[in-house]
């Protein structure tokens, strides 16, 4: 009885478990299942009653003795029905067992199709049988489901019941399934017995897991790129793990109609980190998944409502060696910040082999909240050894520095081949491009199809297509993982620190062309001197820098526009973070305006520069699905190439907003350019960029810096001062002296009106970038027309306009100045070194 007392705690936990189970089932069984199974057989083995007993999942279990499935006449009734001892509180099908020293068979007449077969065991000391001598084999049709199985020796956990789940296809020829229990026998002893407590058979759609040739969905060949593997109807599957990643246990009654159980993944989740250091559980309990890519019964909503994310995630699953495995990974993008292609892309490695190089859930599904799954097959390389444990690992990790990987669910099945000489380890069959009716839902075959081109913007298509083709060598081994951060070479090159050192003459002082809070910018020569580049070396100390570095790469790898600076590549080596851009011969707009060594820019040049920067910003705000807010528009971030084409740069602070919503964030930006509305409410909108751009327009017009503390106090803040001057009708007095007489009055009026509207106090009073662009284009046209008219009158003379530039803006009524107060005691603001150049501050 010592054994009994040891068992007692286990038993009580078991009872409590069932009790809770019962309650949950009663509560949750109200919603109808997504899938109604044609066959839903629940057989309570060993029960001689003709009635039914309510079971653990709310279903009723009927006794096997009275049922048509137990051919009594063919058995010599050596098998006995026994009440489960002690644990009288357990419920069906565990209250009774069929136990026998000799083999016995159940015969289930079934419809043609795929079926779940679940075998329920409750190891206990059944009277007349030695508990430890339950060693037996279970066969179903031509499959050996369990070989030399011992429930009592199953070495399990707190839960005492054991459920073994299989998928088996019932064909037209047999239309039935024989399930046979064969006790182990050897010459020395015949004390071994077999037992079973319950058998469940539930039909399923035939292609839920099967993928016979011609309709495979396990489209990713596992160990060879030229082969595919099909889960044919002549194979059986044994479920080994079904995990709700990042979520909690999902009970059979809560499944979509198949009575599958989904476990927590926590016991198998091994987390290591290489770059960002964190793995995060995402949970969105109110999510209503959009089942546009997969059937809505594939998994319960709860599987997709939770996920783990991180830069490196690892699950280690103990399996038997010598078998092939089917791995199904469930994905659904539920991260709030992710809605675009390439915001989250990662690698998948299964059993130490690269399975997918550039997984991107949004790319696969086209949308957030849209579940999808991917099937992979792991082919065994080992000799078949029963019960010889090995670890099958599933690792997902980012190959880029910025996004993290995501996983919502895992299903792992052992592939069981039928008995017989002709079927041993099934080998993959050659791929055929012709078979894919269902696969067009997935990405590999969709590449190149016109349908996809229509759906996606051609830009992101290009980015992705290149990614897919450029990833040739899968990174192996953990030490290399930290290095595996590259973007596709053609789009964004990865330089070694040595290359950068050579390019900049070991970061020679004389090559410094810019400086800022982030570090220095060097001029450099790459590709044997044929390519001039700007090399931005981030200050390694700054933590802030690391995040902005990543943001910049993320933004620039997605964005291509003639008025946005182009990223050539980057270097992340020995703790250095370096970005490499195309070299902009004519430097920053700021230097062109304020550095007296440079020739002054003409008015038309200035208009063109503004227009270009405006177009770049307009593209940011509207060119992608969700607007991107630059957050740091200023003259030092507008660069000029050799043809004076302006390009917006420095995306380190950029934010991707969701459509039409303000983004709540810590206020960041540069004094003098900072939107007062944003500073007050901390709500970032595209109108914040409009404000900063208005400031740039005034700098361009006046030749004054956005913030100049050397001036009289009321003139420090250019935008505020310009508004006051406009109000007083004296704006003509503060324009750049060089521009006097060069600006056509009609152009001036439009320009000033638009600039003034941009720097209005509240975001809603300001125009959209689009309106700014139209007005600026109009102003440019007016200037050109006026210049042409002047030239007609006086073909060789210098163009000059009368000083008729003064006007007052009367509409709308300006409010009292509620702009951010710059006279506060913030000591930083009186620091003379703080001018508008290159200083980013956090308010
Ligand atoms: C089954 O188990 C018995 C007892 O542990 C063992 O002797 C026998 O070799 C096993 N048979 C197989 C096929 O593994
Ligand atoms: C199934 O079992 C029945 C009864 O034992 C037997 O007659 C029949 O041949 C078996 N069928 C198969 C396919 O094993
Ligand atoms: C599941 O999808 C089927 C069609 O594919 C649809 O008829 C059914 O209403 C859906 N069920 C739910 C609960 O959305
Ligand atoms: C997978 O790789 C890890 C680390 O490189 C190693 O420890 C492990 O043994 C490998 N596993 C297999 C199955 O090869």
TrEMBL record:
Keyword check for ATP-binding: yes
A Gene Ontology BP annotation from the UniProt entry: response to metal ion
PROSITE patterns: PROTEIN_KINASE_ATP, PROTEIN_KINASE_DOM, PROTEIN_KINASE_ST
Gene3D superfamilies noted in UniProt: Galactose-binding lectin, Phosphorylase Kinase, domain 1, Transferase(Phosphotransferase) domain 1
Keywords tagged on the record: ATP-binding, Glycoprotein, Kinase, Membrane, Nucleotide-binding, Serine/threonine-protein kinase, Signal, Transferase, Transmembrane, Transmembrane helix
InterPro entries: ANXUR1/2-like, Kinase-like_dom_sf, Malectin-like_Carb-bd_dom, Prot_kinase_dom, Protein_kinase_ATP_BS, Ser-Thr/Tyr_kinase_cat_dom, Ser/Thr_kinase_AS
SMART domains, per the entry: S_TKc (SM00220)
Subcellular location: Membrane
Protein kinase domain sequence ranges: 507-779
GO molecular function: ATP binding; protein serine/threonine kinase activity; transmembrane receptor protein tyrosine kinase activity
Binding site for ATP: 536
Residues passing through the membrane, by range: 7-25, 443-463
Record Pfam families: Malectin_like, PK_Tyr_Ser-Thr
Keyword hit for Transmembrane helix: yes
Annotated Gene Ontology cellular component terms: membrane
UniProt topology in membrane: Single-pass type I membrane protein
PANTHER family xrefs: OS03G0124300 PROTEIN-RELATED (PTHR34590), PROTEIN KINASE DOMAIN-CONTAINING PROTEIN (PTHR34590:SF15)
Protein name, entry field: Protein kinase domain-containing protein
Gene: LOC115967280
């Amino acid at each position: 009885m010592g054994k009994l007392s040891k068992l007692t705690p286990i038993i009580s936990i078991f009872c409590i478990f069932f009790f809770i189970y019962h309650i949950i089932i009663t509560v949750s069984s109200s919603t109808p299942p997504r899938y109604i199974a044609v066959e839903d057989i629940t057989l309570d083995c060993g029960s001689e009653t003709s009635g039914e007993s309510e079971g653990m999942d709310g279903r009723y279990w009927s006794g096997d003795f009275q049922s048509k499935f137990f051919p009594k006449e063919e058995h010599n009734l050596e098998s006995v029905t026994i009440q489960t001892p002690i644990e009288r509180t357990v419920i069906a099908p565990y209250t009774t067992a069929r136990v026998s020293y000799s083999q016995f068979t159940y015969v289930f007449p079934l419809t043609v199709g795929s079926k779940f077969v679940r075998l329920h065991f409750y190891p206990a000391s059944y009277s007349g049988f030695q508990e430890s001598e339950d060693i037996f084999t279970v066969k179903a049709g031509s499959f050996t489901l369990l070989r030399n199985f011992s429930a009592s020796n199953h070495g399990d956990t707190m839960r005492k019941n054991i459920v073994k789940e299989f998928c088996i296809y019932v064909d037209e020829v047999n239309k039935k399934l024989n399930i046979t229990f064969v006790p182990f026998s050897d010459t020395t002893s015949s004390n071994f017995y077999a037992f079973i407590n319950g058998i469940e058979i539930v039909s399923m759609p035939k292609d839920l897991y099967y993928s016979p040739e011609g309709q495979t969905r396990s489209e990713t060949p596992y160990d060879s790129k030229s082969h595919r593997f099909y889960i044919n109807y002549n194979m059986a599957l044994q479920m080994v793990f079904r995990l709700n990643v990042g979520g909690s246990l999902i009970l059979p009654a809560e499944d979509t109609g198949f009575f599958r159980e989904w476990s927590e993944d926590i016991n198998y989740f091994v987390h290591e980190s290489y770059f960002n250091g964190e793995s995060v559980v995402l949970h969105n309990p109110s999510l209503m998944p959009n089942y546009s890519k997969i059937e809505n019964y594939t998994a319960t909503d709860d599987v997709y409502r939770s996920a783990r994310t991180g830069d490196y995630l690892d699950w280690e699953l103990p399996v038997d060696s010598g078998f092939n495995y089917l791995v199904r990974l469930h994905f659904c993008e539920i991260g709030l910040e992710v809605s675009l292609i390439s915001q989250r892309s990662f690698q998948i490695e299964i059993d130490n082999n690269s399975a997918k190089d550039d997984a991107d859930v949004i790319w696969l599904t086209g949308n957030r909240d849209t579940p999808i799954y991917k099937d992979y097959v792991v082919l065994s390389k080992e000799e078949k050894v029963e019960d010889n444990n090995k670890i099958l690992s599933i690792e997902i990790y980012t190959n880029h520095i910025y996004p993290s990987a995501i996983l919502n669910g895992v299903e792992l099945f052992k592939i069981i081949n039928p008995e017989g000489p002709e079927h041993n380890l099934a080998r993959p069959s050659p791929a055929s491009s012709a078979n894919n009716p269902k696969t067009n839902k997935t990405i590999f075959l969709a590449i190149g199809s016109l349908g996809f081109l229509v759906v996606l913007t051609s830009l992101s298509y290009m980015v992705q297509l290149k990614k897919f083709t450029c990833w040739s060598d899968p990174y192996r081994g953990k030490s290399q993982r930290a290095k595996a951060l590259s973007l596709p070479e053609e789009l964004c090159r990865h330089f070694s620190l040595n290359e950068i050192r050579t390019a900049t003459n070991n970061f020679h002082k004389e090559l410094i062309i810019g400086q800022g809070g982030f570090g220095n910018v060097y001029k450099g020569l790459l590709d044997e001197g044929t390519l001039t580049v700007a090399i931005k070396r981030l200050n390694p100390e700054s933590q802030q820098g690391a995040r902005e570095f990543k943001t910049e790469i993320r933004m620039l790898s997605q964005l291509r526009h003639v008025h946005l600076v182009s990223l050539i590549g980057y270097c992340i080596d020995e703790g250095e973070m370096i970005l490499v851009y195309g070299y902009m011969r004519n430097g920053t707009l700021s230097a062109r305006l304020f550095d007296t060594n440079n020739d002054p820019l003409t008015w038309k040049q200035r208009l063109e520069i503004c227009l270009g920067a405006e177009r770049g910003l307009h593209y940011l705000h509207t060119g992608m699905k969700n607007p991107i807010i630059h957050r740091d528009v200023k003259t030092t971030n507008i660069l000029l190439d050799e043809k004076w084409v302006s390009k917006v740069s420095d995306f380190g602070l950029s934010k991707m907003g969701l459509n039409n919503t303000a983004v709540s964030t810590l206020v960041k930006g540069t004094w003098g350019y900072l939107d007062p509305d944003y500073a007050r409410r901390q709500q970032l909108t595209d109108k914040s960029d409009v404000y900063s751009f208005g400031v740039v327009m005034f700098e361009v017009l006046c030749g004054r810096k956005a913030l100049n503390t050397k001036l009289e106090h009321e003139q420090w803040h250019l935008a505020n001062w310009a508004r006051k001057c406009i109000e007083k009708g004296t704006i003509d007095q503060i324009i750049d002296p060089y521009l006097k007489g060069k600006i056509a009055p009609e152009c001036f009026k439009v320009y000033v009106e638009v600039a003034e509207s941009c720097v209005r106090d509240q975001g809603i009073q300001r125009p959209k970038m689009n309106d700014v662009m139209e007005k600026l284009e109009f102003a440019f046209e007016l200037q050109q027309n006026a210049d042409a008219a002047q030239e007609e009158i006086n073909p060789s003379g210098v163009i000059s306009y009368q000083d008729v530039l003064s006007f007052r803006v009367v509409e709308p009524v300006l409010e009292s100045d509620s702009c951010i107060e710059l006279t506060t005691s913030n000591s930083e603001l009186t620091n003379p070194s703080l001018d508008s150049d290159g200083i980013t501050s956090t308010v």
